[in-house]
Design brief:
Helix content: 40-55%
Number of domains: 2
Structural class: alpha/beta
Bound molecules: manganese (II) ion
Strand order of the largest sheet: 3-2-1-4-5-6
CATH architecture of the largest domain: Alpha-Beta Complex
CATH class of the largest domain: Alpha Beta
Distance between the termini: 35 Å
Largest sheet: 6 strands, parallel
Radius of gyration: 20 Å
Strand content: 15-25%
Number of strands: 12
Number of helices: 12
Length: 341
Amino acid sequence: MNPKIQSFGETLEFLASHDDFLVLSHFNPDPDAYGAQTAFHNLLLSLNKRSCLVNQDGALDRYSAVPGIDQVLSECPDSFSPRTLVYLDCGGRDRIGARVMTELQSKGYLSLPSLNVDHHISNDHFGTVNFVDGDRSSTCEMVYELFEALKVPLNAEGAFQLLCGIVGDTGSFRYPSTSPRTLRIAALLVEAGGDLAAVSQNVIAVYTESSLLLQANALLGIRRTDDGKIAGVIVREEDYQKFHANIIDTENLAERVRDIQGVAIAYAIRAAGDVWKVSLRTSLETLDLSAVAASFGGGGHRAASAFRFRGELADLERALLERLQKVLVAKAKEVTSRNKP
Ligand SMILES: [Mn+2]
């Protein structure tokens, strides 16, 4: 056990004994990042604490239906002097993004006491206090537990914010990370007035025409291994130009490949400036793709992980397929030996 892992109680004490919170979430934000961030803001307000929300990408238009998202700034305003940092949904400190990292460094904020709230099993416990649990569906599920423990009542807005992360990260309650506790919390959030249909319709299933055309184009070029179990797609720089799209429009592309019948492991390789961003997904509960991502310097969850690769696409594909095949073969061996009398 990592000695730096603190208990839930220490997280509550940390919140009670600190103030002037700079609340951060990861770049390329998703509904869990925004939901956790906006809900955390309300939590701190209820505790009579000051807070400021910063995400390197600011408030993305794509997620304008998340209540309070307009409070998410792309940099820390000069008018706010933080004394505490909160990292939400960040598996590592660098997930806040290089630009925000540089800003915090130059302002001397990186050494402030920090709280790390996250559900990635690859989290390296970089905070002063770490509320980290790889078994939770989402960071929003964990933030809910803070509301509950601190007896801060949730209104319809707060419930909506937390549902964004829970619905988003569980693939609308379809992934194995959806535990009975997740469903109970979701039920409580709906009872508190959280509009589940609106979350699904206005936050989760919102795609621009550009993004669908970009994804359709990528899927037309799908490649599968001979046994069909590993499948992947590639998005190149010129595809963004062709469809007036960008990397944010590739969100859920790997999931679309994973959902193809017979596919055990899906990958999506996307051009991102001078690197390739790779997302890995599996529909098999027994596989651990976070280890594959880690072998390339990335991380994530068992069923969903990601990494960045600098180099030639051909080298990336060769190395990736080799490692994914190994994971599948190891799994097959394990199953065979388990079936022996
Ligand atoms: Mn998350």
